[in-house]
């Protein structure tokens, strides 16, 4: 297996749209090291080999191990969440104390922010029956301490061992002047015909072209509170 592990690592990374630098960071090595592994110029040493294998193939009995490992070791603002918006794993950038989730998490909680409810309902509906949709992007305006802010969330849907999960990239920033006060959502769908197999692998899905299928807007501004948690 060592002979092919560089090619497998490259296929895993490209199939999921992961930059080489981000992958290297999650494995605790330099980007140049990953490049040498992928090209076959070097093989992973014993101390790296198990981490690479776990990243690519996961641990026995844990089909989400690879995604969980990638998220938990990333310096990007990433969450791995289930259909009920429960957190399966969070990245280092969101695991600190204090963290952006402690300050802004209420914005993405429909119980605390009614403005998020329509987007949350659509997210749950897509995970229950994707119909070819593999991604969501939305912008959610909100108020914090009397100032206008904006939450941007990009979600990629994966189906692993019959379970739908979502990889979410988050950002929270002051809202630019002139930007709409209305929540906005864009859905992405496969541009090619769906696979015949009932549970296509996420790495195969990620290599297919996507197209925007729907952009829709909410009916008013999102949450107006300044609550932090």
Automatic annotation (TrEMBL):
Matches recorded under InterPro entries: Cro/C1-type_HTH, Lambda_DNA-bd_dom_sf
Gene Ontology molecular-function annotations: DNA binding
Protein name: Transcriptional regulator, contains XRE-family HTH domain
SUPFAM superfamilies for the chain: lambda repressor-like DNA-binding domains
Pfam families in the record: HTH_3
Superkingdom as given in the UniProt entry: Bacteria
Residue span(s) of domain HTH cro/C1-type: 9-52
Coiled-coil stretches: none
């Amino acid at each position: 297996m060592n002979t092919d592990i560089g090619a497998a690592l490259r296929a895993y990374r490209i199939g999921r749209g992961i930059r080489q630098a981000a992958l290297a960071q999650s494995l605790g090595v330099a980007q140049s090291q990953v490049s040498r592994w992928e090209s076959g110029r070097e093989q992973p040493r014993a101390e790296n080999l198990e981490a690479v294998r776990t990243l690519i193939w996961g641990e026995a009995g844990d089909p989400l191990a690879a995604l969980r490992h990638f998220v938990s070791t990333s310096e990007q603002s990433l969450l791995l969440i289930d259909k009920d918006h429960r957190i399966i794993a969070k990245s280092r950038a969101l695991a600190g104390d204090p963290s952006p989730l402690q300050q802004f998490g209420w914005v993405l909680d429909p119980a605390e922010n009614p403005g998020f409810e329509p987007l949350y309902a659509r997210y749950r509906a897509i995970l229950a029956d994707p119909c070819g949709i593999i991604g969501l992007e939305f912008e959610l305006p909100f108020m914090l301490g009397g100032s206008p802010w904006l939450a941007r969330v990009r979600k990629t849907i994966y189906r692993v061992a019959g379970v739908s999960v979502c990889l979410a990239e988050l950002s929270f920033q002051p809202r630019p002047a002139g930007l709409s006060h209305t929540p906005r959502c864009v859905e992405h769908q496969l541009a090619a015909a769906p696979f015949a197999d009932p549970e296509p692998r996420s790495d195969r899905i990620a290599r297919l072209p996507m197209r925007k299928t729907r952009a829709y807007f909410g009916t008013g501004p999102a949450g107006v509170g300044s609550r932090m948690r």
